[in-house]
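User: Hello, beginner here. Can you help me understand these amino acid letters and fold codes? It all follows right here:
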Amino acid sequence: MKALKRPFALLLGLMAVAVLLHFVFTPFYEDIVDTLFIWHILNWFMAVGIILTLAITCAGKRKTGSQDRDANDYLCVTVAFYAAAVLAVLFFWNWFDDLTAGEDGQSQTRRNYWVVINTLFIVLLGTVSAHLWKKAS
């Protein structure tokens, strides 16, 4: 598992940067490019990233729970795990609705959830990526 930390860190970091760039800079090129199509492609990568993050944080929580560590480590790992769980539930709930919405697309209420999902995705995957990279060193 130690040999996979850097590749996973790099993969999660690249996903977080891709979503960040598209999320922030969409207003500058939405007249030129079909940004909704890009989101549909990014969602598949986001699904993989969320599952990976959930697995990584779950493994970290199990490892930390089985050892006597300081309260700071325990708190950080626990918060990361539950943030990943919340992100997974919100993302897959909203994404499956988006996949089955039909011609009219999602309701405005459901579209508003993407702001929360994308923001949490960027912060959580960026943090987990940095933590994995640091642990691999």
